[in-house]
């Protein structure tokens, strides 16, 4: 009785830990892509990286769904990058997904 429960628990417990560590890392980004986001510290880049899911939702909904992380990242990019000030929200959301 305990063995199936233990196996089930072991199967599902590591998944959230792996997902959170992947999301918090720079895995999947190249050194060049992260330096293009801005010349600021890694703490600022975290705002942009955490907006990736919101950016994907924004793009998939053709701009109808705007998440809080995306709004923060758009504001961050426009404050730090002169070219981003003139870019559309859709273009910046696509840029966020590339990072």
Describe this protein's structure:
The protein is mainly alpha-helical and 99 residues long. The protein has one domain (27-98). It contains eight helices and no strands. Helix 5 packs across helix 8 (89-98). The longest helix is centred in the last third of the chain and has 13 residues, at 68-80. The chain starts with a helix and ends with a helix. The relative contact order is 0.13. The model is unreliable at 13-41 (pLDDT under 50). Keywords: Signal. It comes from Stenotrophomonas mori. Residues 1-19 form the signal peptide. Residues 25-44 are annotated as: Disordered.
In short:
Residues 25-42 have a biased composition (Low complexity). The protein is an all-alpha fold.
Roughly how many Å is the radius of gyration?
Answer: 17 Å
Unreliable stretches, pLDDT < 50, 5 or more residues? 13-41
Number of strands: 0
Assembly category = single chain
Chain-averaged pLDDT: 73
Q: How large is the share of residues in beta strands?
A: under 5%
Tally of separate helices: 8
Global morphology:
globular
The arrangement of helices and strands along the chain is: HHHHHHHH
Distance between the termini: 47 Å
The SS-based structural class is mainly alpha
- What kind of sheet is the major sheet? none
Helix content: over 70%
When the domains are counted, the total is 1
């Amino acid at each position: 009785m305990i063995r199936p429960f233990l196996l089930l628990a072991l199967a599902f417990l590591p998944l959230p830990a792996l997902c959170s560590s992947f999301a918090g890392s720079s895995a999947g980004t190249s050194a060049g892509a992260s330096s293009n986001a801005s010349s600021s510290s890694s703490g600022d880049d975290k705002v942009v990286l955490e907006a990736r899911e919101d950016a994907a939702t924004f793009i998939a909904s053709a701009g109808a769904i705007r998440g809080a992380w995306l709004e923060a990242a758009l504001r961050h990019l426009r404050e730090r990058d002169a070219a981003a000030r003139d870019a559309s929200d859709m273009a910046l959301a696509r840029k966020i997904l590339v990072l």
